[in-house]
Amino acid sequence: MKLTGIIKDAFLFPSKNTGRFAIYLLLSVLMAGFIVGGILTNVFGLFNAENYLLGGIYLIIALLIGFILSGYHIKIVKSGIELDDDVPVFELFEDFMTGFDCIVVSLVYFIIPALIVLVIGYDTNLFSNAMAIIQDVFTQAFNVFIMGGSENTAVNALSHTVSNFMGSLTITITAALIIFLIFGIILSMAEARLANTGSLREALNIFESLKDILRIGVGKTIILILLIIAVIVIIEILLVTFLSSYIFLLFVIDIILTPYLALVLQRSLGLLYSDIA
Question: Structurally, how many domains does the chain consist of?
Answer without folding.
Answer: 1
